[in-house]
Write a structure and sequence with these properties.
It is built from four helices and four strands; from the N terminus they run βααβαβαβ. The protein is α/β, with parallel strands linked by helices and 90 residues long. It has a single domain, classed as Transcription Regulator spoIIAA (2-Layer Sandwich). Helix 1 packs parallel to helix 3.
């Protein structure tokens, strides 16, 4: 699944309602995410925990340093495996 634009409370509400479409993905592409707030981070934490529950490793591709700053602040950065965005992913 590719996420882009804002990942804040209004977008999180929509993504939560559509989670059946993407919740089973073990890999999320965040290279196009421009802003992230605690609601966006909380959604990603719930997604990661769901992945772990089904035996998968949640992988974020192209997560920004801002994402990891927020994730470290909340103590949840260790939930995510990070992969840099490459031209093959684009």
């Amino acid at each position: 699944m590719i996420l882009s634009g804002d990942l804040q409370a209004p977008q999180v509400k929509d993504l939560w309602q559509r989670r059946d479409e993407w919740w089973q993905d073990d890999r999320l592409e965040l290279g196009g995410v421009t802003t992230l707030d605690s609601a966006g981070l909380a959604l990603l934490v719930k997604w990661a925990k769901a992945a772990f529950a089904r035996g998968a490793t949640p992988q974020l591709v192209g997560a920004s340093s801002d994402f990891y700053t927020l994730a470290n602040l909340y103590g949840v950065a260790g939930l995510f495996q990070s992969t840099p965005l490459t031209t093959e992913d684009a």
